[in-house]
Amino acid sequence: MRSYKGQVSLGQMKDSFQQSGLVDWHFNPRLQDGDEQHTDGDLAVALAPPQLKRPPLYAVVMLNDDYTPMDFVIEILQQYFALNLDQATQVMLTVHYEGKAVAGVYPRDIAETKANQVNHYARSQGYPLLCQIELKE
After folding, report:
1. What is the rounded CA–CA span in Å between residue 3 and residue 14?
2. 60, β-bridge pairs
């Protein structure tokens, strides 16, 4: 097939759409009113709306240790997780008494970044505070 200026050949379009998984290819289609349709001979393309879903969320979990001061943990919770003093104190006490607590819930890339920032900052200040991420269910 030959493509015209500004147009893509049907074969190229079919390959592109098959790779994306967003279009069903049918011979002799039965499209409803309002569906977009592109025809070329016996072949018709029905454009399907993309199926979107929210990304999975991950919890940034702070783990307890015997060396990191409580004031430092509160400072980190306020600085990196935007918690106010009361919220930060509550999370810090949960870490202290229960061994771990959730500091925040984010998409994976943000959760990894925050955990890495906290771990790096704690090491630079000489504390063994540890944050990790866990898939939130």
Report:
1. 13
2. 104, 133
Query: Are residues 71 and 43 located together in one domain of the fold?
Result: no
Q: How many independent structural domains does the chain possess?
A: 2
> According to the model, what pLDDT value does residue 15 have?
73
Shared-domain flag, residues 68 and 119: yes
Task: Please state the separation of Cα 103 from the chain's center in Å.
Answer: 17
If asked whether residues 17 and 71 sit together in one domain, one would say no
| Angle at the Cα of 95 from the Cα atoms of 90 and 96, rounded to 5 degrees | 95
Tell me the C-alpha distance between 42 and 25, whole Å: 11
User: Which pLDDT score is estimated for 48?
Assistant: 84
Helix 85-98 / helix 70-81 crossing angle, nearest 10 deg = 130
